[in-house]
Design a protein that fits this description.
By secondary structure, the protein is of the alpha/beta class. Helix content is 34%, strand content 26%. It has helices at residues 44-56, 70-76, 93-108, 126-141, 188-197, 211-221, 223-236, 239-249, 258-268, 287-294, 356-365, and strands at residues 9-15, 61-66, 85-88, 113-116, 122-124, 145-150, 161-167, 176-183, 200-210, 272-277, 280-282, 302-305, 310-314, 318-322, 327-331, 336-341, 344-349. It starts with 8 loop residues before the first strand and ends in a 7-residue tail after the last helix.
Length: 372
Amino acid sequence: MTPEPLEGFYTIIPAGGVGSRLWPLSRADAPKFLHDLTGSGQTLLKDTWDRLAPLSGDQRIMIVTGRAHRGAVEEQLPDLADANIVLESEPRDSTAAIGLAAAILERREPGVVIGSFAADHVISGDALFQAAVTEAVAAAKAGYIATIGITPTEPAVGFGYIECGDPLDIPGTEHAEAVSSFVEKPDLATAKRYLSGGRHLWNAGMFIARADQLLAEIERNKPELHAGLLELAEAWEDPATRGPAVDRIWPKLEKIAIDYSVAEPAAAAGRLAVIRGHFQWDDVGDFASLAKLNTAGRSGELAILGEHARVLADASSGIVVSRSKRVISLIGVRDIVVVDTPDALLVTTSEHAQRVKAVVDALRLGGSSDVL
């Protein structure tokens, strides 16, 4: 049964980032969130919208994206209110994106609770997701900045982790805990220790808080960035002042992830709560995770993506993503990654899938921006 929208709740979808570890499928003009990576028949962005609309209502979803993606985003989301699309002139990382949305919404609706959810993650188990968000909103209304941590199912080394502290007695929650610390991507031995210890959750980058308290946290730790966000928000509603303000202020804002500007200092001060999420979640950060997603985690199988893919395989496993009409034949190769597009071909293995970003960096330094 679809839940009633949560009172006083507004969702934010930061739709930025290229997803460079998914090159050459994901590009600057066709970023990860505009692809169907699950076979659902719609993009990750539309999947995210459909998941959040029951929680906030479709008129209370704000999208933060690049100017170049406005047309594609509006085509994907016909119910998106014109006032709820925030366009970045250039990427400035998550604090600027989420902070600006928070500042705009706080001016419109003082005391509003906001929740930020990435546009390009894959989630299943909607009822469990909705339950976790409902608890996080209750924690936010009680004065905490809240995040949702994912109960690990394996010793993953591609995710950051949240270390849980003591349980918190917050009305409307059953699973709220204090956050002791955030941990960067660990090595395998450390990840195995986290999995067996039960005190660590995957960091899914979901943050829920009263907008004014999120902004206050930014002000404590990054006062110049906070001042710029408030100045932008003040100019936002008038198109005559918005454009010049963005061009003048936005490029000067500090680039910093919200994990560092808000979550870590809030955790150190005892202001951050985590809700354990028991739904299935994946950030689809590389082709190894994409292969696992499309084979339901079964090793030894070959995932094939592409509407017109022509693949012949014998005793092979891994993933093939085809955006051409070329015949691709695989014989006796295990855990292979083949991504074939009209102007670029990637061949690697699942073991080395995280290293694709280094290829993108090398192409950029070499001036090959035409394939990025």
